[in-house]
Task: inverse folding
């Protein structure tokens, strides 16, 4: 799947985090804010990771500045190349202190910061889907329509918006769970022999190549 370098259609990270580098007056303020919103991540990161690995039996994924706690086989890595195709759930209210604490704390933390992964719905949008989005453009935040946005895979963050977009704003990648309903449908598609006539074929094809 080829990704473009256009700023359309979604510019969430750019809009939300443009002033994160001046949000806090000191490193202490940034780390205190991280501790307030994510105490497990900042107070005892090693124990948090160990609990997820050894007690829960979940898998640990690494990006440059973060340790992501997820479930093997159901995770997607969202990269900086995909920023234009990642957007929040409609109506999500962002707390910029919370988001910027994630984005800025990487400058001062002594080790990688562990975070529980958020959840994302994934969909391939063809020209008809994009035209439908154009009709309701005012209902989409951070969105500017263009016909060039067709035939791409899009990621809607359903939970963990601050963690996901905060990491992306730090210039890092982020791991997310695939929504359980989407995952179950993908598994059924695989069991059925990966039929090409399924209307979700392009979405499932992406998942088939990228779930980790």
Result:
């Amino acid at each position: 799947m080829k990704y473009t370098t256009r700023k359309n259609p979604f510019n969430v990270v750019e809009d939300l985090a443009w002033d994160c580098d001046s949000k806090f007056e000191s490193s202490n303020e940034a780390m205190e804010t991280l501790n307030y919103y994510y105490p497990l991540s900042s107070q005892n990161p090693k124990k948090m990771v160990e609990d997820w690995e050894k007690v829960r039996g979940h898998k640990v994924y690494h990006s440059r500045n973060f340790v992501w706690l997820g479930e093997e086989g159901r995770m997607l890595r969202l990269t900086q190349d995909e920023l234009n195709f990642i957007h929040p759930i409609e109506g999500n209210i962002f707390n910029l202190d919370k988001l910027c604490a994630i984005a800025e704390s990487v400058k001062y933390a002594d080790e990688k910061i562990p975070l529980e992964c958020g959840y994302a719905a994934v969909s391939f949008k063809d020209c008809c889907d994009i035209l439908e989005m154009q009709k309701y453009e005012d209902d989409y935040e951070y969105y500017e329509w263009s016909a060039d946005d067709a035939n791409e895979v899009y990621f809607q963050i359903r939970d963990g918006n601050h963690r996901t977009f905060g990491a992306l704003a730090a210039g890092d990648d982020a791991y997310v769970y695939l929504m359980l309903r989407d995952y179950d449908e993908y598994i059924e598609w695989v069991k059925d022999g990966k039929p090409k006539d399924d209307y979700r074929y392009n979405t499932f094809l992406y998942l088939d190549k990228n779930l980790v």
